[in-house]
Amino acid sequence: xxxxxxxxxxxxxxxxxxxxxxxxxxxxxxxxxxxxxxxxxxxxxxxxxxxxxxxxxxxxxxxxxxxxxxxxxxxxxxxxxxxxxxxxxxxxxxxxxxxxxxxxxxxxxxxxxxxxxxxxxxxxxxxxxxxxxxxxxxxxxxxxxxxxxxxxxxxxxxxxxxxxxxxxxxxxxxxxxxxxxxxxxxxxxxxxxxxxxxxxxxxxxxxxxxxxxxxxxxxxxxxxxxxxxxxxxxxxxxxxxxxxxxxxxxxxxxxxxxxxxxxxxxxxxxxxxxxxxxxxxxxxxxxxxxxxxxxxxxxxxxxxxxxxxxxxxxxxxxxxxxxxxxxxxxxxxxxxxxxxxxxxxxxxxxxxxx
Length: 354
What we know:
α3 (35-47) links the parallel β1 and β2 (55-58). The protein contains twelve helices and ten strands. Strands 1, 2, 5, 6, 7 and 8 form a six-stranded mixed beta sheet that branches. The protein starts with a helix and ends with a strand. It has helices at 2-5, 12-22, 35-47, 65-71, 95-102, 151-156, 158-161, 181-202, 208-225, 240-254, 260-279, 289-302, and strands at residues 29-32, 55-58, 84-85, 92-93, 108-110, 125-129, 132-138, 148-149, 348-349, 352-353. The chain is α/β, with parallel strands linked by helices.
């Protein structure tokens, strides 16, 4: 059992910490949660002197009565609105108040969300950035303030702030099963990829030309990093990446964006693999009525003329990668048609509908 027990070269959690911190912008205020994240990042800052410019404040620790009194001096420039982070107490603050008094002085990020949603009342939105999410406000050209969110620019620059494939992406599930911090480090990567893909897809309505390529880029990276075989663990749920990538190709074909013939080829590839995985139990019993109905829909769409891939037509690609197969009539309402396998509101993050 030595090989399974040997941890001499196990640097996975440390590597995870580096992956998280290196994507943070300079002097960011990072409001973390979970022991693995907070403790790992603190270790790297204190012992390895890595990214000490990032101000790291754990949301759970800020709920302690001693935190502001004893630790505020370690957060130069950060304002703490009250005695502690406890929205229901008269001497406590909520997340909106914390963000309000620091917004514009720092770029503010959270990991694993916020303990309360009060920030939404002030119009703040969480925007995926690396492994974290940034508190932003929508663009208002009549009242520009620091760090408003330019959604189209976010989509155009996804490849620069999306987490890269981590060095432990081929983690041994036998050696590090679900429940270990090593497994959690890998799962956090796929959670981040899923968050990015869903967010990009949700921008398609306003920015289809940049949001669809961004979503495709994200889901294809995730697909490339998934285990090839069923592991009977949380990673199986990310089989939905194949479905969601296909939905992006499906939308691109309907909107006549990019290389239509290549989109057909990719649609066949990713939906074909999604069908195979579902039929092999990656998402539970393939006899489930909803899954069976979904697979029938996908197979039907793949056989329809506007979406079916015919390799004999590959030579008809012209300049800029645009297909000239104008004999096919695009669906006039493909993005909202009832035959759409996944509606704008039906994309899935991990295994849960968003």
